[in-house]
Amino acid sequence: MSLQILIAGDEAPARARLRTLVEELGHEVCACVSNGCDALRALEDARIDVALLDIEMPGTDGLSLAAQLAREYPGMQVILVTAHPEYALRAFDAAVTDYVLKPVRKERLESALQRITQTPKNIPDDAPMIVIRIGRKTELVRLTALDCFVADGGYVLAQSVNLSGFVDLSLNEIEERWKTYLIRIHRSCLVLKTAIAGIERADQSTHRILFRDGFPPLPISRRKV
């Protein structure tokens, strides 16, 4: 699958290097700009699948631009390309897809882009609906409005940063019914694939799922990592 790609960074040699790598990997560079304002203008004129953003740019920095793109272009994937590893956690808070360090290796960029081509696109507006009990009300909620399902004490709780309610189905029933939309991160938790922003490694044995909407990270079992 060939991707339409935007490159934004303030260093001309770095932009040229990225363009060469992207084209060698069989993708198309639709725009190559030096700052965030030009990146936003380019998005008005072209269909972009992926934005490759440097963090340090004049005007809007890459992290702020990534957060803005997540709000205004939710179907677009963002990969930060930077020499600064210390921004990784802030990057995932901005809902980036990946974080590639300079100097960029072709194999590393290829891996990041392959994950995008192999990941299901955002679930369309006709995604399944699910009945959730929120307080005394029963509501019909679209599956894509949720982040996760958590089993606790004989109940299953459906949650996102904006809502929380009970579901009259077991975790296994939910997984079987909508397995193409979900991934199990441990015995008592299912996560919506499209809600995932990334994975955080706290130490060698502890990993957590990060969510695009700011929902608190959830632990991943060793078996599921």
Structure notes:
This protein has about 220 residues and is an alpha/beta fold. The longest helix has 13 residues. The protein contains six helices and 15 strands. The chain is elongated and about 60 Å long. A five-stranded parallel β-sheet has the order 2-1-3-4-5, with helices on both faces. Strands 10-9-8-12-11 form a five-stranded antiparallel β-sheet, with no helix packed on it. It is about 25% helix and about 35% strand.
List the helices and strands and how they pair.
Blueprint: E1 4-8, H1 12-24, E2 28-33, H2 36-45, E3 50-53, H3 62-72, E4 77-82, H4 88-93, E5 98-101, H5 106-118, E6 129-134, E7 137-142, E8 148-152, E9 155-159, E10 164-167, H6 171-177, E11 182-186, E12 189-192, E13 196-203, E14 206-211, E15 218-220
Parallel strand pairs: 1-2, 1-3, 3-4, 4-5
Antiparallel strand pairs: 6-7, 8-9, 8-12, 9-10, 11-12, 13-14, 14-15
Helix content: 25-40%
Largest sheet: 5 strands, parallel
Strand order of the largest sheet: 2-1-3-4-5
Average of per-residue pLDDT values: 87
How many helices? The count is 6
Structural class: alpha/beta
Spatial separation of the terminal alpha carbons: 27 Å
